[in-house]
Amino acid sequence: MKRIFAVLSALLLALSLCACGAEQAQDAQLFAMDTIMDFEAYGTGAGDALSDSKAEIIRLEKLLSRTKESSEITKINDQAGTPTEVDAEVASLLKSALEYSAATNGAYDITVAPIVSAWGFIGGDYRVPSQEELNGLLKDVGYGRITLSGTTVTLGAGQSVDLGGIAKGYASDRIAVIYAKDGVTSGMISLGGNVWVCGKKPDGTDWRVAVQDPNDSSAYVGILSLSDAFAVTSGAYQRNFTQDGKTYHHIIDPTTGYPAESGLTSVTIVAKNGTMSDAFSTALFVAGKDKAISFWRSGKYDFDMVLVTSDKQVLVTSGIAGQFEKAEGSGYAYETIG
Predict the structure, then answer these.
(1) Where are the alpha helices (DSSP H) in 182-273?
(2) Were 73 and a residue from 43, 54, 66, 86 both cysteine, which residue would form a disulfide, CB within 3.0 to 4.6 Å?
(3) What is the rounded CA–CA span in Å between residue 211 and residue 194?
(4) Which residues pair with 246 in a beta bridge?
(5) Which are the contacts of 333, defined by CB distance < 8 A and separation ≥ 6?
(6) CATH class of 6-42+181-235+263-337
(7) Residue 297 CB burial class (10 angstroms; 0-12, 13-18, ≥19)
């Protein structure tokens, strides 16, 4: 899972405060899904929206976390190799995960869970696994071995899954529904790298969402002006450790078992669907610049993106180029992708 994305959240909040006018925001904060989550809403339904949103996050964590003994995901993993009846909501999310895995040729793969654990990215006991250990774990990686029929899921023997790569994206989709139900038409949420902005700010202008500089936690490569949109970022800087002078990050390439070395340092997906954005931010980070651009150009899915490369390029797709403000003096070269 992506860890706390505090800088983007702080920048978003700071950039929005100056335009609140007479209408005051209601806000809340919650630690869940291994990250700090920030919520902001305006209007008479704001209080209900924040309360309902926090309750929903807690419900989803209990349902989807593989570290919770009573969760549906733990049940699936414990019964690997055996058909397992699951909650309809979980089955629907698994269906989406398998679709996105197939669409990205396995660059996003929920069965990479044991390898993520082997590196210590679940629990924080960081280590570099041996090649022999990784080879053994790689035998059980492969979304194609999962079968899903209605609400019955069967993992391959020895497999386990983790929906952490889309759980916060799905949570943001659910909160969008809650805000609408409670009558909130202006607000934002930041779920540790997953940002959703509701409508426009109270003064009628777009929300300004900063894209962090992967090489400097106090800086950003640009600012997106957005309304009613999800902006989800995956970056090598979000969770990592250094051993023997080499830094290892948490985004694992399912084909090698090692942290992806794709030439990208961050990927931000902008779309109208949080679950999809979450999956694609991870998948396209693993795939690399050229495959990411080809995937976007295919037009199969409706999204835009900001790619930041290790050689100091910022690539912005044409659909959001007019909404992207470069960071002056950042040292990056900027290019629009058409």
Answers:
(1) none
(2) 66
(3) 11
(4) 243
(5) 312, 313, 314
(6) alpha beta
(7) exposed
25-54 tens-digit pLDDT:
899 999 999 899 999 999 899 999 999 999
> Of 228, 268, 258, 262, whose CA–CA distance to 5 is shortest?
268
Q: Write down the residue that tokens 């909130």 correspond to.
A: 184
Whole-model pTM: value is 0.92
Phi/psi class of residue 145: alpha, beta or left (left: φ > 0; alpha: ψ in -120 to 50)?
Answer: alpha
- pLDDT tens per residue, range 167-202: 999 999 999 999 999 999 999 999 988 999 999 999
Nearest to 94 by CA among 12, 155, 39, 47: 155
Contact call for residues 35 and 191 (beta carbons, < 8 A):
yes
Please tell me the distance from the alpha carbon of residue 125 to that of residue 282, in angstroms, as a whole number.
22
Nearest Cα residue to 284 out of 95, 105, 145: 105
8 Å CB contact between 295 and 287: yes
Residue ranges per domain, the chain?
Answer: 6-42+181-235+263-337
Q: What are phi and psi of 109, to 5 degrees?
A: -150, 115
Residue type, 260: A
Alpha-carbon gap, residue 108 to 116, rounded angstroms: 13
